[in-house]
Amino acid sequence: MSLQHNDAFALHRALDASAVTPVAETQETFPRIAFFLQDLYGGGAERVMLALASGIARRGFAVDLVLVRRQGAYVDDIPANIRVVELGTKRTVNSVAALARYLRRERPAVLLTALVHVNIAALLASLLARVGTRLMVTEHNQISRNIAPTASRTVRMAYRLVPFLYPRAARIIAVSDGVAEDLTKFAGMERGRIDVAHNPVVTPDMLAKAAQPVNHPWFAEGEVPVILGVGRLSAQKDFGTLLRAFALVRASRPIRLVILGEGACRKELEDLVDELGIAADVQMPGFVDNPLAFMGKASLFALSSRFEGLPTVLIEAMACGTPVVATDCPSGPREILEGGELGGLAPIGDAEALASVIERSLDDPVPAERLLAKAEEFTVDRAVDRYLTLLR
Predict the structure, then answer these.
(1) Do 231 and 340 share a domain, yes or no?
(2) Per-residue confidence band for 353, with pLDDT thresholds at 50, 70 and 90
(3) In this structure, is residue 145 part of a structural domain?
(4) With 0-12 CB in 10 A as exposed, 13-18 as middle and 19+ as buried, what is 81?
(5) pLDDT at res. 25
(6) 55 near 384, Cβ under 8 Å?
(7) Is-contact 80 53, C-beta < 8 A?
(8) Three-state SS for 294?
(9) pLDDT tens digit sequence for 247-259
(10) What residues contact 277, with CB distance under 8 A and at least 6 apart?
(11) Which of 3, 88, 203, 238 is least surrounded, with the fewest CB atoms within 10 Å of its CB?
């Protein structure tokens, strides 16, 4: 079902019904909600948006997943009740006209987007289409820090357009209070114009994934404790500080470190491992399909980022009952860890401080029950409830 601009009341009524009406009775009467992404490669924002789309589809809504390219690690995870629309262009910047045609043809009630250059493309397409679709842009990271020095001219232009185009969205959603504050300053907007909705991190199948076996000898029962890091091998994640902190901890006790992920900084990190003389106890296997299985078996999860939005991996580790430590970076870790009550916080880039909180957590870990209770705040159902409220 598609809605025209004057059908807002029908959307509101359908959203109210979603909490109690069985899926089978609603597929023909609920409005269509579309999600727009470039692709489904292994980024956190893509995974979050797919989880949100799946959760909304389970409530009975007709859901479209509009992709510039149907590619990426999560393509096989798209549920059968979500319709995939591939625009077929090579780059997001070239997809504006194709997305506008989709909006005119399908007229979804709402279009949700994530990532700055994708958000800008959607806003331009909405202006071009001139239909009643309500556009909701989501910001998943510290926008003032997130643009890479090597970013293309097109991406840089997208960031420059944020102050001018974001205010045209029906809703602007940040994944944490810190992200909202940063966006407020970057775009010169009023703080009240930005809503906060936490990511849908804890999924129904999470425990099953965490319980799956790991084909790695270090995670066998009775082995030396393992610290785990997960993320792109990039400057933002600052795994160099984690390696230096690990070297300090390793000097006083038997310990190992595994970092899951791939990225441009691999050679730099491998050289640092050799320089620190810790190669025998550090492994970087690259991207893995199921990092939850590693999280469920690690002795400690460590986040060493310079900045974040709302770090999904930190919440996932807590949902597995695994003790966590993190840098006190903007933004997310302090919110998630309740100021350090649920895991040690260290200053950004301070290897000695990170080593100290790692040692304290290994010696006196936070009980799993407290971590699991906090992770419950980030379930898919809670996120879907929040987004459906905002969709009104």
Answers:
(1) yes
(2) very high
(3) yes
(4) middle
(5) 37
(6) yes
(7) no
(8) helix
(9) 999 999 999 999 9
(10) 247
(11) 88
